[in-house]
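Fig. S4 source data, part A: sequence.
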Amino acid sequence: MRMKALVLFLVTLAFAASAWAAATETVLYSFCAQTSCVDGEQPYGTPVADASGHLYGTTYYGGANNFGAVYELTNSNGSWTESVIYSFTGPNNGDGANPFAGLVFDKAGNLYGTTYAGGASSEGTVFELTKSGSTWTETVLHTFSDVSGNDGTNPYSALMFDAAGNLYGTAHAGGKDGYGVVFQLKPSGKKWTYKIIHVFPGANTSGGGYPYEGLVLDTKNGYLYGTAYYGGVIWDVGVVYQLREVSGVWISSVIYTFLGDSLGQYPYANLAVDGAGDLYGTTYSGGNYDLGLVFKLTPKGSSWTEKVLYSFKGYANKDGAYPYYNGLTLDASGNVYGTTYQGGSSAANNLNYGTVYELSANTYKETVLWSFGTSGDGYYPYQPPTIVKGDLYGATYVGGLHGEGTVYEVKP
C-alpha cells in the first residue's frame, strides 16, 4: 500500500550565539500527520539517500498495520513529500515488525534492512525491497529463530555490504551463549544463504556480548569491525572487535577493551573508519563528566591505541550528553559528525533533547551545530546523521508537530 502525505508545515529554525555555530535546521517531515499514523511513527534509524537525493528510512511503529513502515521523502524544488512504500504486516503473516535500524542500498537500487520483531518466531527478520515501476515489493530473506539455541534474535542493527555483494549484520541477543551473533547473507542468483560467522561469549568475558549496532568494513584489508556493549575481562564495560576471513574461516579478535571512567564505557553505537584504517566511535557514558565521549582507535602493528577526542559536558554547558546508539559519520575532509541523545540548550530554555555536533578534522574541536527542542522541532535523535552534498540529514524518534518524530536537515 502506497500512501502519500504532502508536507503541510515546514519549519526552518536558525539559532546563532557566541557559544553556538551559525547553522540552520529544517524539519522536512513530522510523522503521524495522517489518521492512525499510517504515514509512520517513531523513526529511530538514519535515513539513506539515493542518487537523486531522495531519502528513505523506517519507522518503528505506524504504517497501515502499526507494525512499522518504510518511507520515502522526495524533494521537488525544496518541497518534500512523504510516501509509505511498505507497511509491515507482522508475525501473524510471517512478516517483520518494528524496524529499528535504517536501510542500505545495493548497486541496483534495492533496499535492505532488519526488523527487531516479527517473523514466524517473533524474533526479527532481514528483508529486501525491490522496485518495479512505482511499486516496491518486500521479500523476507531471513527469519530469526533461536528455538534450537543457534540463531541470533532481535536485531537492532543496520546492514552493510562488502565488495562481493554479501550482507552483514548483528543480532544483539540469541546465539549459543545468548549474547548475540554476527551473521552473513551470501547471494546466489535470487537466493540468499544465511550463516552465523561469530557468536559472542557474553559478559565478564574477553570476547564481549550484546552487539547492539552493526559493522563497518575497512576496504584496505577487508576486515569487519564492531562494538559490543558488555565484555572485557577488567570492568565488563564493552569491547571493540575485529572479524577477518582466512581460507573460508572467520577469526575474531578483540582489539580494544574499554577501561571505564574517563576512558569510556558501554559502546552501543556503530563505528566509522577513515582511509588510513583508523576507527572512530562513541561510548554512552564515561569521559571526564561521565556523559559519554568520542574516541579514536589507531592501529600500531598488532595493537590498537585509544585516544579520547572529546568528552561531552551536558546541557548545563550547552553541550550534548549520552550518545546512545549515536555513532559517527566522517566527511571526505576528516571532519566528524554525530548526534547525542540528550543534552543541548535551545534558545533561552535549558532543554535536554539532544544535539547535532561537529568535531573538526585534526584538532577535533567540538561545535554544537544544532540543539533540539525549539517549538515544532524534533527531539531525542538515536542515530548519527548522513551527509548529502555537505548537508546533514537525520531523524528524531519523537517530537515534531505531532509528537511522533521527524526527519531533519542541518546545514552547517
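Fig. S4 source data, part B ends here. The CA atoms of residues 211 and 228 lie 4 Å apart.
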